[in-house]
Amino acid sequence: MNRRTILASLVASMSGVGLAGCLDSPSVTSNDLDGTTTSTPETISKDEAKKRAYEAEEEFVIEIVKNAECVTSDVGTGYPYTEFTSIDDRTEEGVYVAVELPYWYKTGIAHVHTKTQATYFVTDDTVERVDGDEVTIKC
Fold first, then answer.
1. For the region Disordered, what residue ranges are annotated (predicted)?
2. What is the 3-state secondary structure (H, E, C) of 36-54?
3. Mind listing the pLDDT tens digit for each residue in 106-127?
4. Would 123 disulfide with which of 12, 94, 119, 135, CB 3.0-4.6 Å?
């Protein structure tokens, strides 16, 4: 390779890396100067992470409430998830999502409105509740 070809390859490679950071793509591939191809690990989108964290908190709360003997109704939850979630942090492995879940239920003597707050770590494959309020039922 002559010097001009190497310089052109370098500029093209650097331009691709600069643009790759701007794309909303789950995986970015680039060509190195030696001709090998490398790719970054797939990462979950912010919207998908928020949705999956919200759904996990919803399942967590509903499971506890529906198993309480004094609850006489189905559990209602707030929606849409985009209003009750935010991204706390992103790492190479996944995304930390803060979730606030408003919910309500009825007992024989009261109609209860309350909420939980939790933090989830979401990856391409998992959703894990890493911190959050304890869910208690007021009978």
1. 30-49
2. CEEECCCCCCHHHHHHHHH
3. 998 999 999 999 999 999 999 9
4. 94
